[in-house]
Amino acid sequence: MGLVLLIIIWLITFVSTYFFIAKTWWLPVGASASAASIDHHFTITYILMGIVFVAAQVGLGFFVWRYRDRGGSSNKAEYSHGNTTLEIIWTVLTAVLFVGLNLMSSSIWASERFRPAEANAVRVEVTGMQFAWYFRYPGPDGKFGATKPELEDASAGGEGALGLDSKDPASKDDVVTGTMVVPVNREIEVILRAHDVIHSFFIPAFRFKQDAVPGLAISMHFTPIQTGDYEIACAELCGLGHYKMHGIVKVVSQEEFDKWLAARQAEKQ
Amino acid sequence: MATHGFAGQETHAHAAPQGFIRKWVFSLDHKIIGLQYYFLALAAVFVGMFLSLLMRIHMIWPTVALPLVGEIKPETYLSLVTMHGTIMVFFVLTTAPQGGFGNYFLPIQIGAPDMAFPVLNMLSFWTTFLGFIVMLAAFFVTGGAPLHGWTGYAPLSALPSAGPGEGLGADLWIISIAIFCIGALMGALNFITTTLDMRAKGMSMMRMPLTCWAWFITAILGLLAFGVLLSGGILLLMDRNLGTSFFVPLVTVNGQLTGHKGGSPLLWQHLFWFFGHPEVYIAILPAMGLCSQLLSVFSRKPIFGYKAMVYAMLSIGFLGFMVWGHHMFMSGMSPYTAFAFSIMTMAIGVPSAIKTFNWLGTLVRGKIRFSSPMLFAIGFVSLFVSGGISGPFLAQPVLDIPLHDTAFVPAHFHLIMGVASIFGIFAATYYWFPKMFGRMMSESLARWHFWFSFIGTYCIFMPMHYLGMAAQPRRYSQFTELQYLAHLIPLNKFITYAAIVTIAGQLIFVANLFWSMFKGKKASDNPWEATTLEWTTATPPPHDNFGGRTPVVHNGPYEYSVPGAPRDFVMQSDPAIKAAH
Amino acid sequence: MASFSTTATVDDPRISLGGGATLPPVRGGGDDGGSGSPDYGTRLRRARLGLLVALTPILMLFVSFTSAYIVRQGLPTLDPRTNTLVRDWIPVKLPRLLFVNTCVLLLSSVGMELARRQIKREAALAPAAPVSAISTGEEKKIPWLAMTVVLGLLFLTGQWMAWRQLAALGYYVSTSPSSSFIYLLTGTHAIHLMGGVLALLVAGAASLLGRPVATRSIVVDVTGWYWHFMALLWVYILSLLEFAR
Q1: CB–CB of C174 and B185 under 8 A?
Q2: What is the residue range of B542's domain?
Q3: How far apart are CA A50 and CA A101, in angstroms?
Q4: Yes or no: is domain C42-75+95-130+139-243 CATH 1.20.120.80?
Q5: What backbone phi and psi angles, to 5 degrees, belong to C112?
Q6: A-side interface with C, Cβ within 8 Å?
Q7: How far apart are CA C105 and CA C186, in angstroms?
Q8: C78 touching chain A per CB within 8 A
Q9: What ipTM was predicted for this assembly?
Q10: pTM above 0.90, yes or no
């Protein structure tokens, strides 16, 4: 039985580890400025934790085989209540490993989240509601117009869904779309809002996730570095349509973005 | 309870009850109450497993109509998710290890004739039972069971218009949990008072088996945490039914105003997780205590570092109250607060690691016997390591960004709660079954059960890590809408097949359990040659546990292979061994 | 000192009684007055310990409500109409009746303490009761327990009246967050106090039915401490509502 346990435990360990190393199913290709540092730290974490995982499981499998009761009174168990020195050593090592990893990642966290968006970031208001995402661009006046819950009417397109108050002069140049379009290599500031319940704006390729909470307008930022289309998933249970609350963010060149925005503005006239 | 006057009016405190109702239904005997909790949890786990089976089938075959249940609509799927989580966490993991085995064996292991408050004990079981009935009732009311997940985030859980099942079903869910809180608090009261006040002579705190320490610390966690959950539930019920706005800001559902304003969804999360994090330690600590016990018994060796094990459990309990924010890194909470919580979370990994080292240390230079309880204890260590390793990923906010609310999270908590903790329940069953029923369970059926479960659960939950890294979100009823999920469906299918096989394998356990109760080989009083006090009693133990005697303890709980002793174990109530412990 | 000469001579340790070397039964391990039933002192200590433990989750409940109160009071929320952060907390002037009720409750706490000491004396003297010359104070007993119950019920009635006053001013449960908390905190406290009143009624009924004084004494003692806790808790709640408006 000891041998069987060893074999099975080792097999499970090596098979699982194989798929981690082979990256058979892995994080999507990173397409934002922060992806590199997040992925790098992810790699460090999984290598270190992987070593711990393999060592512990291999050790467990080995010990249950090596110290099995082989019958007879010749092999006695050791009468020992422990070893304080060993305890101290592995406690300190574990603490150093865990706290060290955390402090390393904290600098990345700080650079992502402790500072507000740059002054010249491209601002997009992202609103989640059951079960779609809407994106609003403030237009040349740089201001988002007022929205009124009483004016909400999802059947009347994006502006209706947001309840845009057309009486507010600032709303005249607001562009509301169902697809997010942003220019590459520019910092994008997203202001996250939600109309009904908590949603979460998740763009796997950008390593970006933030809950959109009703009653709050949460400002975050990211910088896409690769043109292309990337999927958005809702990452907070929001009701029966949670699985299909998705969207697309198109990262295009600055020129294309300007053209696109100008075209949307023209449509409003 | 003794109706005790003074001299001359002694009533025997523990006369055995007569009559079916007083003996089996409203028993005051902690052993019967323990069995009642255990069988409640057994019923609950089968409900919970059935729900998860339906979930897994729907995830890979969304359009298939199942026999009995019919077609599973997206909202039905989410109510399965909600009820699966709620039933498993509360009525299985918080019930069987503590209410079940704790109730049965804590008094005996500390040398007491019963719990401190037997009437309260009986009431705590029936309260929990009532909670379970109310929870099940949610399935059958208009709108069905709620779909807001076991975490019940507001405003989704606070607005009846936010989804099917969020009407009466959600109210019943909250009420059931509130009833459960009260039952759990009554139980915690008993455990703490009993441990502090009813230990036999010589049973100092540092001579208690680690199972008793685990039950004691778990009860303290429950005492401090369930009141907070109750408060959250009350506020949520008020928001839902009395028009208050604790958790709901100005929102519109389908364009309709709800009448609420100014509330804070994050307030619910803080209250819930202040309870929710200690809750997961409540779910795992008894299994840790038992694992320590079993590794020692079946290695014929004292536990490595008893004191460190006690301090580690105390640290886990204490730190467990300081880390709740790690469930909220993406919630909109301040990033500075997130940083503070993440440091505390890494800190709590340290005592868990100490325990793992000590378990391995117990095995080294032991003389290992592979009886069924030991198989599950060894399995527990492996699963605890696997589940624990993913913790440090999630504990770092920056890595939580890609991983939060993906399949990586259920991979982590299922390996620990959904498997390791369950292995603790299995191990406890195989270990204590002889004492409870006077018969042995079948070892060969137990081995089949072990291998099905050990390999099966790894096949289910290890791949979930890969799915999570590939950004598969949680609580999606199907994966047909997002392009990037398409290539993950084969792996999801593999998991579902593994789940079907593993769940089928659990029938072996049930068959073994019930068959052995009537036909199992008769057991001696101490078939495992263990040292703790429950193995000194008759089998099953009489009404007052020790047959009118009061045990006196001279030794620690893990005196195995003591040099110079005639047998390779010295019981706690045996004469003191030379090395004072 | 340890000797390992066991009396058990068994061939197969697996079939022996596991406790083969256990010493014969030891009586009087301190707690037991006799055949396993605990004595009065033990039961009192255990009951008081149980109460102390039980007060912890009650405390946590109100700590939790307090933190919700502070958060809700201070947290701004986004007004979608103006896209600005606003606070919607409206301080409520508490009915003065609540302060009168507080005096009633504190008075009841005095009565409760007197009742507690009274029955403790009775329980202590009970063994001497058969000796006819010794008085246990039964003849001239002031009904402190009954008075406590009356004052407790008076307090609860006063709370109800304060609720009516609030409603008359237009403050209902859902009117504003501050009014929600007033009803929540006072209501939860009232429910818990009602529990104490019920316990006293049970003790009173037990007395009328002639039940043994020892158990009654423990019930009243434990309820007494519970009652004082409820009084202190009420003072805290009132202070929070009045000074942290």
Answers
A1: no
A2: 525-581
A3: 14
A4: yes
A5: -60, -45
A6: 144, 146-149, 163, 193, 215-217
A7: 13
A8: yes
A9: 0.95
A10: yes
